[in-house]
Amino acid sequence: MGKRSSKKRQPKKKKATTRSEKYYASKNKASAKRKFRLKKRFKVLLILLLAALFVAAAVMLFEKFDPNRQDYAEKEKGKKEKIILPETERSSYFAGLLREQEFNVIARHPIDLDTALVSFLEKSRSSSVPENASGKNQENDAENSGQKSVSQLVSLKTDGSYDQDTPGVYDIKIRIKDRAGDKKTVKMKLGVKDLADEKDNYAFLTGNGYMGRHHKGISSIDGIIIANKTYSVPKKFGRELTRDAFEAFEKMQSDAADDGVNIYIKSDYRPYKDQKFIYDSYVKKHGAAEADKYSARPGHSEHQIGECIDINYTDKSFADTPEGKWVNKNCSKYGYIIRYPDGKVNESMYIYEPWHLRYVGRKLAKKLYNGGDWITLEDHFGIDSNYNE
Known about the structure:
By secondary structure, the protein is of the alpha+beta class. It contains 13 helices and 12 strands.
């Protein structure tokens, strides 16, 4: 006889035979599965919660040191205001600001370079004008509080041979002298750029010291795309009225309705080919010289940008209607401007169009409203509006 195994046999599990036993067995299995799924879900939720906390902490840390945040910017501004430079270092200070930049101008649209550079320095300098380190009030308090303009602190003169009508790169010298007699000379390259070159990307200086940007055939200044007789946009640029412009109009339309005024969009986005058809029809009917007074050549129309609207009806009499008066007084509150104001044809180079509104944002629109005496984009930025014949 063989030896018996020393291992004890495990008793077989008793199979559920009755209906009640089968029911409770299946219920226990389902309960175990539910517990497993709940544990799995809990782990996933815990991981997601920890990830969210990590992201929130990262965002808070970023915002704490974000230069665009108002309180941080004010704190940094306060640090800058503590900087005190001797009177004899003012020329060095402004020379340093110039060295940090690359300057280009637009060919065949000349500007007064000296005036433009002074305006550029005015916009670029820190909030505090360098003060007299001696602590003596040799000047008046206005100077030490930063109220003196750059032209009152230093004199600036550009030397060098350059031609703003001929594209190229020229060597220039900028001589700066402060009232203490300290002189500095900045040597740099001045680029004269051709707007017709859509592939060229560069920054350019305007007559009022703003730095514009020309990129892929589109020119913008302070984020505002420019389309006039000087600056154009590519044929395929634009698709529809921008969201900001549309939402701003909806708000303006709603508030106007509350005041019993009905305004509506007659025309907004217009592609290149449609503008060409309209302009060509005016030329055929009245001639090019007359058409240029009130219609943009294709590629030069603000309608193609998608931030321009014509409202109600296109006639000068619109200005004298309740709707026209309401729009003239209130459109700037919503970021719109009367693009071609009355009496400013020598700046915009278009006749008065009280129905033609351009969206530029509330901050700039408020400046251009100017208490009702509208300022053109051309006058504000220091640019012209003339076709290159």
